[in-house]
Amino acid sequence: MSTQDLAGTTALVMGASAGIGAAVAEALAARGAAIGLVARRRKPIEALAARLRAGGAQAVPLVCDVADHAAVAATVQAAVDHFGRLDHLINNAGVIQPIGRLHETDPAQWAQAVQINLTGVFNACHAALPHLLARGGTIVNVSSGAAHRPLEGWSAYCSSKAGVAMLTRALMLEYGAEGLRVYGFAPGTVRTAMQVAIRASGINPVSRLDPESLIPAAAPAQIIAWLCTPDAADFPSGEHSIRDAALRARAALQMEFAD
Ligand code: NAP
């Protein structure tokens, strides 16, 4: 078996119904992993599971809201019951709303964004860690440039992503010595429904980006899938970005960025 291969391993992709998560599921399946596809919307994950299975992969749709700890715990258990093991956790589920200046923001919607983007990552890690640690295990937390710099109108998003970046470091500190690899990975500006919502808001420079400049979800997905492979075992845990040319080279992603 090649060190690029994931045959015999199982991955759980949170937020697999669309965008980057769906592309990550495809990329993991292409390397031979069995996939648990997690999202709130049933139809798209059922359709993706059927497509992956038709291509020879093992895939199961698991409807779940990552904000609900009990539901996440049951989902992780269902994946382990189905596949017999869990090796990789991709914390990709996320929301951009509420978009707007802080004083105009609905407090309940702000709290809900943190509950999904940050507590959702905790929920999945909390439930998955006992299984991941039995195997060495990999966690990829989908990060963002917004984890490290504020953008107008995105206080919930930036705050929750900053929290995830710290959670990545806390996980490394607590479990790195046990063989767990934990990556935060910023995927760039990617052509997904999230960017459509951002563009419609018109509130900050990201909303005014040329749509032609957005990159396909398959690009970050290729790197995320590679991070799960044995080939990446020497790649340091921590926060990384698709803008890192050395990472793109290691993951064999042929794509150039202006900066
Ligand atoms: P997207 O197309 O809107 O997809 C978001 C995914 O998250 C969907 O599968 C959605 O599924 C799932 N999700 C949202 N809330 C959920 C919940 N409570 N429980 C379970 N699943 C949930 O967005 P995307 O652009 O692919 O974003 C994926 C990740 O990349 C996010 O973490 C985002 O912050 C990050 N990111 C994106 C960009 C970009 O330019 N697109 C840049 C930096 C970082 P359901 O609606 O079916 O639940």
From TrEMBL:
UniProt family annotation: Belongs to the short-chain dehydrogenases/reductases (SDR) family.
Keyword list, A-Z: Oxidoreductase
PANTHER family: CLAVALDEHYDE DEHYDROGENASE (PTHR42760:SF37), SHORT-CHAIN DEHYDROGENASES/REDUCTASES FAMILY MEMBER (PTHR42760)
Name this protein carries in UniProt: SDR family oxidoreductase
Domain Ketoreductase: 9-188
GO molecular function: oxidoreductase activity, acting on the CH-OH group of donors, NAD or NADP as acceptor
Top-level taxonomy: Bacteria, Pseudomonadati, Pseudomonadota, Alphaproteobacteria, Acetobacterales
InterPro entries in the record: KR_dom (IPR057326), NAD(P)-bd_dom_sf (IPR036291), Sc_DH/Rdtase_CS (IPR020904), SDR_fam (IPR002347)
Superkingdom, natural source: Bacteria
UniProt entry tagged with the keyword Protein transport: no
Listed CDD domains: SDR_c
A Pfam cross-reference name: adh_short
Species the sequence originates in: Limobrevibacterium gyesilva
